[in-house]
């Protein structure tokens, strides 16, 4: 009997000791991130049958269990990914919005100062000092565009570097998860602390991307990122990498290395911080550069066009003030193709009002060209003419050498324009103050005459027929100089040695009067330049050049406010999910202190059983003497 009591007591002591050890382990890890509270599952020993009855044989510690709720943890991982994505986007847009409100704000200020200088020159068109001020203000506009473009370009480079660093950390996590899996296989019982470490790594991974975890029959796990890309499978980890973009090699893409194969991952498949980085680089920064580029093209091209419609101080047709955005070099730079391509395409801007931001994708399947617009709409295009070309959204795409079968290129009409903008005029005397479009013109449309070469005919009028199908050129007395012919013309028009170009935007009965006789003190072209400040040149006649900037600032502000609210909502959801996990897995010090006292008393009571067994055994021995 003494031996039975001793066994009962010793097992009780050992079980209570394990309870105390586990409780102490919980208390020690109360501040350990990712720790799940553990508890000892104790069970009664199998009874012994004796004398027609079953007698209990004590207790034992059956297992140490984690307090864990798989569904709550999965919910927290999803909430973590959503919060990380919203927080990263809010931070990115906040920095960009702050730049637009401070350094980029100089762009419209510089433009307004330029128009102010033009107004000052209008009062004294021959004043060289006033002309120098106009050129200096023009340089400030170009420099402001260049500076902001440089900042956005650097942010794009920095974001790509952050993407590489994030991918590296995700690969490290994948390898650490494999190491944990190996340690789990070596652990004979349930590896509670290793599983906590596993969950902590998954939690960190969910900050970078969307994660799902599936348990395997062998006790290990499959870790899937995005919309079905296996990062870890049991004892094996795939490697994430970035590949050069296609066809833009600078926009690196995400890919997964699986054995000897490399599988590209769409950026839309990724959430979390990594997804936010891709969105910022490919969407937000691209939008900002496109809109600033449209402003640069609109501002420069409108002023250059007016320069070409007037006389400078030397009585010559005005030269460009800014970069010619329809030069062959810049027209070719709007096309992005891979390094092995032999295609030769140029993109010219013919209509500012129709010019849109974004990427166009042109693909050739061997027989047909297909153009995908920035909004995703596809349309077949058929180039015509010599060289072949087609028109879309104010652009003329000229194909000097065609695409190979199944080749695709990107068309970015305005992406780099803010960085390409320069003041090309050096002599202030070259500013064309006098317009050769005479005040006697009667024009209801947007018809324009551009003098390509000044010859013997100094004054004439271009007249559009009442039905708008023909035009003719007469002198100031109505005598025919160029007989009626189809409108719009197919090329330049020779008027007694003066060669002109007539656009296709005149309306019936328009009369465009041209005078190539210089007049000292004439400021008619400067007045037209001033009018550009409020002229609706962009967005199909809805926006001025400055309105484009205001629209960009407003859109970025709306996006910022939207992600700020989304971050607040995601924070609430994350805190709620974290609370549910803590309710199940968290350590409560008050509860653990109570358990400590309870198990301490159990330990002491079991020790008393052992004392009783010892005393009983001694009594039996003494009785036999």
Automatic annotation (TrEMBL):
Keywords (A to Z) from UniProt: Bacterial flagellum, Cell projection, Cilium, Flagellum, Secreted
Domain Flagellar basal-body/hook protein C-terminal: residue ranges: 584-622
Top-level taxon in the UniProt lineage: Bacteria
Pfam families tied to this protein: Flg_bb_rod (PF00460), Flg_bbr_C (PF06429), flgK_1st_1 (PF21158), FlgK_D1 (PF22638)
Domain Flagellar hook-associated protein 1 D2-like: 337-413
Family per record: Belongs to the flagella basal body rod proteins family.
Protein name, UniProt field: Flagellar hook-associated protein 1
The organism of origin for this protein: Salinivibrio costicola subsp. alcaliphilus
């Amino acid at each position: 009997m003494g031996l039975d009591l001793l066994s009962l007591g010793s097992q009780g002591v050992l079980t209570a000791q394990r309870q105390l050890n586990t409780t102490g382990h919980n208390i020690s890890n109360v501040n350990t991130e990712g720790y799940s509270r553990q508890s000892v599952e104790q069970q009664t020993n199998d009874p012994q049958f004796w004398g027609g009855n079953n007698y209990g044989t004590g207790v034992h510690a059956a297992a140490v269990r984690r307090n864990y709720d798989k569904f709550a943890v999965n919910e927290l991982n999803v909430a973590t990914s959503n919060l990380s994505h919203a927080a990263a986007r809010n931070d990115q847009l906040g920095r960009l919005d702050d730049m637009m409100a401070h350094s980029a704000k100089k762009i419209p200020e510089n433009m307004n100062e330029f128009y102010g200088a033009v107004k000052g020159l209008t009062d004294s068109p021959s004043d060289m000092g006033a002309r120098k001020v106009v050129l200096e203000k023009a340089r400030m506009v170009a420099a402001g565009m260049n500076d902001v473009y440089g900042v956005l370009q650097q942010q794009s480079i920095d974001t790509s570097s952050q993407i590489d660093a994030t991918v590296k950390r995700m690969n490290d996590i994948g390898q650490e998860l494999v190491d944990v899996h190996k340690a789990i296989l070596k652990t004979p019982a349930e590896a509670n602390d290793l599983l906590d470490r596993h969950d902590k790594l998954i939690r960190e991974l969910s900050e970078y991307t969307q994660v799902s975890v599936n348990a395997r029959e062998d006790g290990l796990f499959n870790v899937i990122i995005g919309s079905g890309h296996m990062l870890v499978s049991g004892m094996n980890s795939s490697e994430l990498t970035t590949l050069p973009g296609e066809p833009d090699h600078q926009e690196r893409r995400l890919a997964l290395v699986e054995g000897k194969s490399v599988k590209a991952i769409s950026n839309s498949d990724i959430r979390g911080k990594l997804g936010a980085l891709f969105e910022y680089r490919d969407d937000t920064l691209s939008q900002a550069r496109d809109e600033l580029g449209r402003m640069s093209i609109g501002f420069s091209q409108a002023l250059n066009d007016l320069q070409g419609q007037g006389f400078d101080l030397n009585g010559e047709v005005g030269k460009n003030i800014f970069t010619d955005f329809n030069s062959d070099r810049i027209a070719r730079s709007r096309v992005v193709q891979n390094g092995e391509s032999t295609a030769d395409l140029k993109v010219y801007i013919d209509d500012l009002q129709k010019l849109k931001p974004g990427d166009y994708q042109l693909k050739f399947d061997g027989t047909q060209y297909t153009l995908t617009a920035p909004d995703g709409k596809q349309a077949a295009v058929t180039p015509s003419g010599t060289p072949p070309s087609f028109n879309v959204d104010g652009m003329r795409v000229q194909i000097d050498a065609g695409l190979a079968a199944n080749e695709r290129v990107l068309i970015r009409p305005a992406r780099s324009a803010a960085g390409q903008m320069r003041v090309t005029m050096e002599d202030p005397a070259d500013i064309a103050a006098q317009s050769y479009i005479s005040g006697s013109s009667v024009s209801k449309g947007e018809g324009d005459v551009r003098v390509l070469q000044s010859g013997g005919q100094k004054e004439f009028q271009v007249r559009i027929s009442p039905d708008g199908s023909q035009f003719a050129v007469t002198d100031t007395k109505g005598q025919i100089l160029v007989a009626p012919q189809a409108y719009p013309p197919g090329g330049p028009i020779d008027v007694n040695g003066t060669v002109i170009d007539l656009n296709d935007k005149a309306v019936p009965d328009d009369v465009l009067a041209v005078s190539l006789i210089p007049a000292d003190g004439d400021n008619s072209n400067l007045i037209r330049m001033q009018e550009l400040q409020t002229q609706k040149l962009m967005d199909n006649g809805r926006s001025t050049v400055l309105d484009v900037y205001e629209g960009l600032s407003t859109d970025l502000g709306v996006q910022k406010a939207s992600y700020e609210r989304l971050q607040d909502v995601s924070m609430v959801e994350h805190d709620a999910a974290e609370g549910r996990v803590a309710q199940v897995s968290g350590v409560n010090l008050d509860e653990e202190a109570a358990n400590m006292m309870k198990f301490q008393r159990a330990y002491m009571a079991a020790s008393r059983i052992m004392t009783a067994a010892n005393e009983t055994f001694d009594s039996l021995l003494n009785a036999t003497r």
